[in-house]
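User: I'm putting together notes for a lab meeting next week and I want to include a structural view of one of the chains we've been expressing. I don't have a solved structure, so I'd like a prediction I can at least talk through. The sequence is below, exactly as it appears in our construct file.
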Amino acid sequence: MAAPRSDGKAKRPTISEVARRAGVSTGTVSRHLNGGHWVSPEASKAVTKAIRETGYVANATARKLRTGRSGTIAFVVDEPPARFFEDPNFEALVVEVGAALATRDQSMVVLLAGDEPSATRAESFLLTSGVDAAVTASAQPQHHLFDRLLSSGIPLVNIGSPTGLEDRIAFVAADDREGGRLMAEHLLERGARRFVVIAGPEHSPGGILRPGGFRDAIRAAAVEGVDAELLQVRHGDYSSDSGREIARELIAAHPRFDGLFAANDRMARGAIEALHEAGRAVPGDVLVGGFDDSAGAKDETPPLTTVRQDFTRIAEELVDALNKQIDGGVRTNVIVPVRLVIRESTAATEV
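Assistant: Thanks for the context. Below is the predicted structure for the 351-residue chain, given as C-alpha cells.
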C-alpha cells in the first residue's frame, strides 16, 4: 500500500520501492515494465507481485518520453455495440487480455468498429492517439479493417486465423480445425450417424476451420466403413437467433439427422430450442455439441457438450506476440490447443 504523506494524501509508490519489495535491482524492474527482456521468470514473478502489493503505477508521460511508447494497446472489435455486449466471448477476451497486459504494466482501450463510420473513427484514433499496437477481433471483410491497419504501419495481432492473410498478419488462435474434428469423433462414438452443422460466418474460422475439421472426421469414418453422413452445412452469425432459425430449416429439410454441431455455444443453444419446439429431445433424439465453453454452457438445460477455448492462454500468447512485434517487428502465429468438454447434450443414444 502507498504510504501517507504529511498532507494526508497517499504518496505514489516508486520504482525503487518495487525493487526493494521484489528483492531485485531497479534496472530489473525497469526491464520488466518495458517488455521483460533479460528478466528471469522468477524475477518477473517477484516484480509482478511487488507491483500489486505496493500499488505502483508507472508514469505514462515519463515512459513515453523515455521509450517512445505509450504503454497502451487498442482492442478493436469489428462488431456493433449490441453484438459486442451480447456475446460472452468478447467479455472473456477483454478481461483476459486486460489482465495479461497489466502484468507488463500496459493498458488497453476498446474500440467498436462495427460499421463504416465506426471503422473510420477507429482508424483515425489509432493513427493519432499514440497507441503502441492493436488487437483485432471479428474483422468483417466489408469494412476492410485489416487493410486500414496494415497501411497505417501499426503493429497488429488478430484473435483467430485471419482468412487469406495468415502470411501478413500475426495471429493467436484456438485450434479450430482440431476442435471440429474432436466434436465429430465424439458424436460418432456416442452413436450419431446423420449430421448437420451450423457454421459461423463464411469468412470466419468458425465458418471455415471448425466445420472443415468436422467434415474431415466424418469422411474419415465413412472411409473406415462407418455408415456416417454429413447432410448439410449452413452458415449463421453466431447469435442464438440464427442457430434457432437455421435449425428449424434443417429439421424441415433433413428430419432424419441425429447429430448437430454448432460453431459456437450460442447457436447451439438456439438450435436446442428449435429441436424442443419440434418435439425432438436432446439428447434422446439428437446429440448437440457447441464450441467455446462460454458462460452458461454448463448451467442451462441440458448442459452443453462443447469445445473449450483457453481464453487465458490465448490472451497471454497474444500479449507476448504483441510485444515481440512492438519491440522487434517480429510477426508470430500461435495455435492454442482446445479441449472437448462432455456434458449431458451428447449422452449416448442407441446405435
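A couple of points you could mention at the meeting. Residues 1-9, 60-67 have pLDDT under 50 and may be disordered. Residues 176-309+340-346 form a domain with the Rossmann fold fold (CATH 3.40.50.2300).

User: Perfect, that's what I needed.
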